[in-house]
Amino acid sequence: MIIRSYQPSDAAPTLALFRDTVQKINAKDYTADQIAVWAGHEQSLAAWHASFMQHVALVALDEAETIIGFADMASDGYLDRLYVSAAHQREGVGKRLVAALEQRVVSSQYTAYVSITAQPFFKAMGYSTI
């Protein structure tokens, strides 16, 4: 697995990964209406890309250089997004992305608003629920 900085050409594949992951992984904890709103099919690719450019953003690639996960963090330590492909859950992708972000963004406190689905992962990473 390779972790590298987000590039403009990553916008479309990360948006597709996000939507697919929400629909396949988070659907067990949320209603169909909640998933439809969350997957945000009305969000433009330009807005998606612009949001990454405001943060430190990383992508995880497999051996074929396909994006299998991504994450981004604001300069104050706020972890905005962390998504891992449905096909690569529980392989350490999320841990590697979070660790790489925490190395790049020095903060006295790291925070995130996380889904019900992601709470066990973040607890295992040392985050506290408030």
TrEMBL record:
<dbReference type="GO" id="GO:0016747">
    <property type="term" value="F:acyltransferase activity, transferring groups other than amino-acyl groups"/>
</dbReference>
<dbReference type="InterPro" id="IPR016181">
    <property type="entry name" value="Acyl_CoA_acyltransferase"/>
</dbReference>
<feature type="domain" description="N-acetyltransferase">
    <location>
        <begin position="1"/>
        <end position="130"/>
    </location>
</feature>
<dbReference type="InterPro" id="IPR052564">
    <property type="entry name" value="N-acetyltrans/Recomb-assoc"/>
</dbReference>
<protein>
    <submittedName>
        <fullName>Acetyltransferase, GNAT family</fullName>
    </submittedName>
</protein>
<dbReference type="Pfam" id="PF13673">
    <property type="entry name" value="Acetyltransf_10"/>
</dbReference>
<dbReference type="InterPro" id="IPR000182">
    <property type="entry name" value="GNAT_dom"/>
</dbReference>
